Amino acid sequence: MAADAGIRRPRTRRQHLFAKELKSLMYAFGDDPDPLPESVQVLDEIVTDYIVDMCHDAARMASRGGRNKIKVDDFKFALRKDQRKLGRVEELLIMSKVIADARKQFDDKQEVSDVASAGK
């Protein structure tokens, strides 16, 4: 990932941010319904480290662009070498837009029906 990927950070006590989701994910991939806590903890550390590294890469891209804020494009650029993950990001962004548009249409229709029923 990053140039300093071989350097391990000192272990700090972290919350188990993704424990519930990882248990479900592990079960979906064929593990026991109640996996060992150590397995979940290791996987949680791996996922958390990956997310932190990805955020650092995106922040580095933003700073090279002379910005203080990270944009979605910074994450896309950080994932440019992994086409599968980049494709998934693109797919999720498109689906997010579709859902937002559907909500907007639903809200607009709801407002029209509220106005129509208030006018009766």
TrEMBL record:
Gene3D superfamilies: Histone, subunit A. InterPro entries: Histone-fold, TFIID_TAF13. It is found in: Nucleus. The keyword Transcription regulation applies. Keywords: Coiled coil, Nucleus, Transcription, Transcription regulation. GO terms for biological process: RNA polymerase II preinitiation complex assembly. Belongs to the TAF13 family. This is Transcription initiation factor TFIID subunit 13. It comes from Tuber magnatum (white Piedmont truffle).
